[in-house]
Amino acid sequence: MNKLFYPAIFHIAEEGGFWVSFPDIPECLTQGDNMEQAYEMAVDALGLSLFPYFENKKELPVPSSPSAISVDDGFLVIVEFDIESYRRRYSSKAVKKTLTIPEWLNEEAISMGINFSQVLQEALIAKIDHTISN
C-alpha cells in the first residue's frame, strides 16, 4: 500500500485560485493560486495529515467513493499520495557520510560558515528532483 488516493474538493476562491478540502480528513485544508499549485499543495497537506497515522501505526481514514460525495461549490479531484516517497523525503533519520573535497573549498566554506550537511542535502534533493522531472 504505497499509493493512496483520496477525493478532494477544489473550491474556487473569491480572491482567485482555489482552496482544497478533503471530505474524509476534515482537518486537511490547503490552497493554491492556480490548479497546478493547488494540487501540489493538496498532496503536501495530505502528507502532513496522514503521516502521523503511519508514524503512530493508527488506522487511516477510509477514502470515500467519489460517487458518494456531493459537491455543491467546486469540483471533485482524486489526489494521489505516495507514502514511501513522502517518508523518504521527510524522515528525520540521519545517516553519516564521509566525503572528500579540495582543501581550498573546505577552507572557504568554513570561513563563510557554510553548513556542509545542509548544502549536501539541498544539492542532492535538487539533483534527484531534476532527474525525476526529466
From TrEMBL:
Q: Which InterPro entries match?
A: HicB-like, TA_system_antitoxin, TTHA1013/TTHA0281-like
Residue stretches spanning the membrane: none
Q: Where is the HicB-like antitoxin of toxin-antitoxin system domain?
A: 6-106
Query: Under which name does UniProt file this protein?
Result: Antitoxin HicB
Organism of derivation: Acetivibrio ethanolgignens
